[in-house]
Amino acid sequence: MNSPLTLDTIVIGAGLTGLTVGHHLLKDPNHKFTILEKEERAGGQIRTLKKDGFTFESGPTSGIISTSEVADLFEDFPNLLNLATPLAKRRMILKGQEFHPLPSGLISAITTTLFSTKDKIRILGEPFRAKGTDPNESIGHLVKRRLGESYFHYAVDPFIGGIYAGDPEKLVTRHALPKLYALEANHGSFIKGAIALMKKKKTEDEKKITKAIFSSHEGLSTLTSALSDEFLKANSLKLGALNIEVRFREDLQLWQVTFYVKGEKEELFSRNLITTIG
Ligand SMILES: Cc1cc2nc3c(=O)[nH]c(=O)nc-3n(C[C@H](O)[C@H](O)[C@H](O)COP(=O)(O)OP(=O)(O)OC[C@H]3O[C@@H](n4cnc5c(N)ncnc54)[C@H](O)[C@@H]3O)c2cc1C
Predict the structure, then answer these.
(1) Which protein residue has the closest C-alpha to ligand 1 atom 34?
(2) Pairing of strands 33-36, 6-12
(3) Which of 111, 160, 168, 224 has the fewest CB atoms within 10 Å, counting from its CB?
(4) Domains of the chain with bracketed CATH
(5) What is the distance in A from the centroid of ligand 1 to the CA of 240?
């Protein structure tokens, strides 16, 4: 029997996460990998539509440079992504019939009418509040427990709606907002954790995290198309890969991955397996 082709890594899912993983793997010419995607297109939630001279996004419209990997994408595709104007930092929240600016500093956080006086006073006790015990606590439950109802309704709920178009009462914090979860898990409090992070000496990678907002004039699909083109050229992206099955072969110490493309069964072996699907 011929020995099977062994890859270094198989990535499942060609949304932005899988494509970004692939982009980093591609930097090592000796690293052999394949991305498997069930759809006939890459991009996942990111999908740009053009009509009558307008650009529409059916999924995300913007992002934040919140990891060094995103900063690297900016460096590698300088013409595809655009930083938002500083005006975009002014976020407006609808409360009752009026829009209110989301506080961006200590003074505005004290004077805003978005949050109740009770919660503003209560937040002073946040560093002393007991740590949660449920690893699967929802974002809604965690924020109400630590900060209060009004912070949940007028800061966190609109933010989560904008990012996930999801219900914060159902999203598990550990998965949806791992950095927020880590603040409480590692430091016992959001405030104590935020202060500890501010004091920590930043690595070169962390210095790239500017928190700037970005989008793309031509639509975010230009980024996912540019990424997937790299892999199609390198023959390391398989679209229409259906019924993927994975199992770890103890005898080979390898992952065995089978799937079907246009009805034909294919099989790959790999040392590492990364899945980006929910
Ligand atoms: C309406 C909406 C608006 C959003 N707005 C924003 C925003 O403004 N800013 C922001 O930062 N985020 C936003 N988000 C969230 C953002 O879109 C996601 O966090 C991000 O796109 C997730 O990328 P991903 O690669 O992890 O997952 P996905 O984009 O879901 O990609 C997963 C990929 O895996 C594939 N796949 C799934 N199952 C299998 C399988 N069994 N076999 C093979 N392939 C499989 C899917 O087809 C897909 O291509 C929004 C989301 C939605 C839905």
Answers:
(1) 13
(2) parallel
(3) 111
(4) 6-78+217-275 (3.50.50.60), 86-211 (1.10.3110.10)
(5) 17
